[in-house]
Write a structure and sequence with these properties.
Proton glutamate symport protein; single chain; 73% helix; mainly alpha; 409 residues; globular
């Protein structure tokens, strides 16, 4: 019994269930619960920048062949684009088959009071800005803002610069290796607080939005979850089979991270832990350091499923028939706009609003319909994103011969 009570998985599940009960019973606890959840996520995010930086620098500096760095990065980006496109197409197909918005009658009462901020952000958002934003004006500012893409870019340049020093760079590599271990030790300490963070996140969600908000949009929610499950066990399962590793063994290895993401609705809450777990699972440090951080920007499978299904859902709500050409156009636009979802607060709504503005077919104010229920779908998005990035890391590691046999359970 004592062993069960001290098990982190059990503690996180207990925290989630307790959060649901407290949030449902004590609505006034919402603000306090939000503080608890945000504090835990802040503890994690303060470690993300340094851990990404040290891991990437050490990975690149440890590679003797610089061409290999470019090859790994190229393979990762190609894989990300293929999987993201598949996720978009599957989302569109499922939304067309299940038609979650065809019988929805609540759009007239949609709350549009919060929509102005998202519409403004969408109007200000341009794909070219996303590309130019990758290069930081100030390196320290990138770390201060915890901008993953900018830190990733600087770390790659720093790693190349360090690798060119040869033996002279060994003292720096040795120091960075020790600092990296310090940050991972801090991360393991923080993860012991995961049950409290999961409790706060779930209590805030339930107390703020309430179970009743789910009813009008239950079919859309069910469709998103069903599609995410199909993508994980169908598409990613097939990828695992082709690359000869067990999806179930992988999922069992990261079960703690899955539970934490479920409780906090944030895949970033386990980014450092996933990097650590992927190394322990058998992937080399250099591959993990490049693929995981890049995946958090370019391989958002769960987010792309949500975006594609939401667009089709809103078209059905407003009784707007979309031709095959229009749906293919939407997929093409989403392939571009979804890449801007990384590191943007409220990214789901901003990307969705910018897509609706681009296609000019569906009323942009329709996004307001999803405001109340979005939080309940964020778990599916975040978990799918996280699982997909782990699978991508294993695939790239195996293709490069940088994968050792995973440990026995």
């Amino acid at each position: 019994m004592k062993k069960l009570l001290t098990n982190l998985n059990f503690q996180v599940i207990a925290g989630i269930l307790l959060g649901i009960a407290v949030g449902f019973t004590f609505k006034s606890f919402g603000p306090a619960a939000k503080i608890i959840s945000q504090t835990f996520i802040s503890l994690i995010t303060m470690l993300i920048g340094p851990i990404i930086f040290f891991t990437i620098v050490l990975g690149i500096a440890g590679m003797n062949d610089m061409k290999k760095v470019g090859r790994v990065g190229g393979k990762a980006l190609l894989y990300f684009e293929i999987m993201s496109t598949l996720a978009l197409v599957i989302g569109v197909i499922v939304a067309n088959v299940l038609k979650p918005g065809s019988n929805f009658a609540g759009h007239a009462a949609a709350d549009t009071t919060k929509l102005a901020a998202f519409q403004k952000a969408a109007a200000d958002m341009h794909w070219i800005d996303f590309l130019t934003h990758i290069v930081p004006v100030n390196v320290f500012d990138a770390f201060a803002k915890n901008d993953i893409l900018q830190i990733l870019f600087f770390a790659i340049l720093f790693g190349f610069g360090l690798s060119f020093m040869g033996e002279e760079g060994q003292p720096v590599i040795s120091l960075f290796d020790k600092l990296s271990k310090v940050f991972f030790n801090i991360m393991r300490m923080v993860m012991r607080l995961a049950p409290i963070g999961a409790f706060g996140g779930m209590a805030w969600t339930i107390s703020t939005y309430g179970i009743d908000t789910l009813k009008p949009l239950a079919l859309l929610m069910g469709s998103v979850y069903l599609t995410s499950i199909f993508f994980i066990f169908g598409v990613l399962g097939l990828v695992c089979y082709l690359y000869k590793f067990s999806l179930w063994k992988y999922l069992g290895f990261i079960k703690e991270e899955i539970l934490v993401v479920w409780g906090t609705s944030s895949s970033e809450s386990v980014l450092p832990a996933m990097m650590d777990k992927m190394e322990k699972f058998g992937c080399s440090k250099s591959v993990v350091g490049l693929v995981i951080p890049a995946g958090y920007s370019f391989n958002l499978d769960g987010t792309t499923i949500y975006l594609s299904m939401s667009v089709i859902f809103l078209a059905q709500v407003f009784h707007i028939p979309l031709t095959l050409l229009q749906q293919l156009t939407i997929i093409g636009i989403l392939m571009i706009t979804s890449k801007g979802a990384a590191g943007v607060t409220g990214s789901g709504f901003i990307i969705l609003a910018s897509t609706l503005a681009a296609i000019k077919i569906i009323p942009a104010e329709g996004v307001a319909i999803l405001l109340g229920v979005d939080r309940f779908m964020s778990e599916a998005r975040a978990i799918t994103n996280m699982i997909g990035n782990g699978v991508a890391t294993i695939v790239i590691a195996k293709s490069e011969g940088e994968f050792a046999s995973p440990p026995a359970p």
